[in-house]
Each structure stands twice: as structure tokens, then as C-alpha cells.
Amino acid sequence: MRAHDFDMTQSLDDLTAILSGNPELSVTEPEPGFPVIEVHTPVSSATVALQGAQVLAWAPTDHPPVLYLSPKARMQPGTPVRGGIPICWPWFGEHSEDPELPSHGFARTRFWELVSGTMEGRMAVLVFRLVSDEVTRALFPHDFELTATIKVADKLRVKLQMKNTGEDLYKVSCALHTYLSLGDIERIQLEGVKGSHYLDRLGGDAEPVYQEKNLQIKGEVDRIYQSMSSVLIRDLDRYRSVFVDKAGSRSTVIWNPWKEKSKALPDLPDKGYKEFVCVECANAGSDKPTLRPNGSHTLETVIGLRPLS
Ligand code: TA6
User: Fold this and answer.
1) Residue 67 belongs to a domain with what CATH number?
2) CA distances for 196 relative to 213, 224, 244, 251, 288, angstroms
3) In this predicted model, what pLDDT tens digit does every residue of 214-228 receive, in sequence order?
4) Catalytic annotation present for 280
5) Could you tell me if the CB of 255 is within 6 A of ligand 1?
6) pLDDT grade for 247, boundaries at 50, 70 and 90
7) Which residues are 208's β-sheet partners?
8) Whose CA is nearest to atom 8 of ligand 1?
9) Would you say the pTM of this structure is higher than 0.70?
């Protein structure tokens, strides 16, 4: 992909005009050429980047962050941002035929168009769109229209609608690659995958492995669970639970890089692994939706807090 492939499609004035009339919504540039929308409602705050329509931060008022954003995340056009909720599309992980193509597809490193920004009562609603063009067709020879709807209130809801606007049928794999912020990775219990099977991406995706108990993370984990269930993270350090509900997904990816990979990733602190776990609502592994001409699929995640019952 060339540099201008990552050009912004709307000016700061365009973005400000779309958000006008809503004091809860504003546009800033944490880095030159990398605009984000700041959301401040009575019940929560969020930051959403135009690149990738990526939620970078969300927290209910008076609560620590619910999403993790690496302090070493790079906010420059064309570079994936380590944290928040990257939208991985039209493939999850490495491209199945060409490992030279960008990991997790191109949706997360393209600027999406802000279609609207409104308030519905105390909830902010942001709608972004990404439509196929010659840049995407060079990587993925099909036509599509993606719409990301982000609803910010006492819960965070991210909905990805993917429509085949072309003449040919194709399959996709994708994920809402959510980084959840934790007090201490070694003091959590992850509920919701017990009794399901997973593909262990560290073990070469061989045979599915049965998950006997709730998951505690004591080392590198990179698994695609064949599950439609919600996940609940009991965070004993922060004395709260975080729930991750989903729709349109038959696979949940759980990832933590642990010590060695944390050190190897330039946009993650050496001890970054201690502060997050990824719980990704996905269509991955054998769960690959087929999009027929004019057909569509919707992947959605809803994230919120619960008392540590
Ligand atoms: O979702 C898990 C995973 O596929 C891991 O294998 C790891 O590569 C992670 O995503 C992060 O990928 P990224 O391309 O954002 O560094």
C-alpha cells in the first residue's frame, strides 16, 4: 500500500460540521493527520479514531478505563494502533495465501468516512463507512460497503455491517479485536468458554482442544474458541467484572502475548501483557461468513461493567 492510500477523506472542518450541535462530541488530532472524535456524555467517555473507525478508549464516568490502549501505540496513518477495538476485516490474522498482505486485513489502517455523529438521549451514536476502491481491490478483488455503528453510553456497542455490493460471492473472516484493560492478568478469571472447544494458534491450529474449566491466564494464550457465548472477566484486582456480549459470531478469540512477545512487540511495553487481555468477537477459524451479491452479515459486540458478584 502506498502512502497516499492512507489519506484522510474528510477535513477537520468537515468532521466538525458533521458533529455540530452536539457539545458532547468534538474532533481533535492527538497526532498530526490522525483525527479522533472525543465523546463525553453524562455517563461515559470515549475516543474513536477516523482511521479504522477504531474505538481507542471507553470508560463509564468515574471508572478506570475498560479498554486497554498501549502507551507505546503509534498514531500515524497506515499503522495499526495497539489497543481499543481494531476492526479486522476482510481476513483475520495472516492472509491465507499471501503472508505479505497486512495482518488482520486493511479495514483498520484505512480512514473511514464519518457519516453521522448524534446524541440519542444520553447515548452518543457515531456512524462510519468504508467502501471498496482501487486500493482495497488491489488487496481484495471484491466490492463491499462496511458500516460501523458505535454507541457510547453506560455500555459500549460496536456493530460492523458488511455488505457485498459486487457481482461475485465471497467469504470473509473478521474480528472486533477488543483489548480489555485489567488490573493484573494473573488476578482474573475468564468465564464463558468452559465446555467449548478451541483451536490453539500456538499449537498449529491442529485438533480442537476441550476447555474444561473457566480460563485463568498463566502464559501466552492465542486461541479461537468455537463459541457463541458471552464472556465475563472477573477482575479481582480492580474488584469489578467486565462483560463482553456478542451477536453474529460463532468464534471468540482470546489472546495475551505474555512476557516474550510483549518484549518483542515495539508498540507494547515489556510488561504490557500484565494489563490486558483480548476478547475478540470474531468470525474466524471455520466460522467464515459467505457474502452473496447484495448479501450482508453483521458482527456486534457489547461491553460493560458488572459488580464483582
Ligand atoms: O487475535 C490474536 C492475534 O491474531 C495474535 O496472533 C496477535 O498477532 C494479535 O492478533 C495482534 O495482531 P497485530 O497484527 O495487531 O499485532
Assistant:
1) 2.70.98.10
2) 10, 10, 17, 10, 18
3) 999 999 999 999 999
4) yes
5) yes
6) very high
7) none
8) 93
9) yes
